[in-house]
Amino acid sequence: MKTNYLLPHKYKPLGWILLILGTIFGITVYVLGFDSDVLTIKVLNIYNGSDFFNKTDVGWFILQDNSILDELAALLIIFGGLLVGFTKEKIEDEFIYKLRSESLVWAIVVNYAILAFTVLFVYDMLFFDVLIFNMFTPLFIFIIRFNFLKFKSTEDDQ
Fold first, then answer.
1. Which candidate, 150, 142, 136, 116, places its Cα nearest to that of 26?
2. Residue 53 belongs to what domain range?
3. Which pLDDT score is estimated for 147?
4. What are phi and psi of 34, to 5 degrees?
5. Membrane-spanning residues where (predicted)?
6. What is the pLDDT, as a whole number, of residue 36?
7. Separation between Cα atoms, residue 113 and residue 122, nearest integer Å
8. Which of 147, 157, 149 is nearest to 81 (CA)?
9. Residue 48, Cβ neighbours under 10 Å: how many?
10. Most buried one in 25, 56, 100, 158, CB count within 10 A?
11. Rounded distance, CA 103 to CA 85, Å?
């Protein structure tokens, strides 16, 4: 099966390491709070709207102090999840392609069902938290579903 969009299998262990570290790191940052003084550096902010309470600069392309812990956690999760989800298996055949395709469709449908439910029943800042987690749920659902189906198929073969 020719799959041009998949990376070589050798990147999968790196993906798992990044994904697990990013998930642990992200949960820790979320539980401890996003506003931390650790790793605070000057970052480029493309647009900073008016913030009456914090008295920050307003305008385009402004350098501002920001803790990059949450950004690092998000990037670890994104890159790790993409490496895990989109690297070839040791044996990449039509069956694996079918599992991958079905898992991806299933992940998107479940993700938007969850999002629709939260649009209807979750409000205020909790909804914002749901949107943050919603950035990562398609990857997590896809990885879990794909690996579950792959495991289940190997279990059925035995």
1. 136
2. 1-88
3. 95
4. -75, -25
5. 14-34, 72-91, 103-122, 128-148
6. 67
7. 13
8. 147
9. 14
10. 100
11. 10
What is the Cα–Cα distance from 60 to 6, expressed in whole angstroms?
37
Domain termination site, one of 88, 106, 132: 88
Model confidence at 18, pLDDT cuts 50, 70, 90, reads very high
Tokens of 156: 């059925």
* Burial call 11-25: b when 16+ CB within 10 Å, e when fewer: bbeebbebbeebbeb
Work out how many domains the chain is built from and give that number: 2
Q: Are 38 and 67 in contact (CB under 8 A)?
A: yes
Check: CB of residue 143 under 8 Å from CB of residue 84.
yes
Residues 19 and 81 in one domain: yes
pLDDT digits 0-9 by tens, 81-110: 999 999 999 988 999 999 999 999 999 999
CA distance 71 to 22: 10
Smallest Cα–Cα separation from 85: which of 132, 146, 2? 146
Element (H, E) at 27: helix 12-32
Average pLDDT, the chain: 89
Q: Report how far residue 76's alpha carbon sits from residue 27's, in angstroms, rounded to the nearest whole number.
A: 12
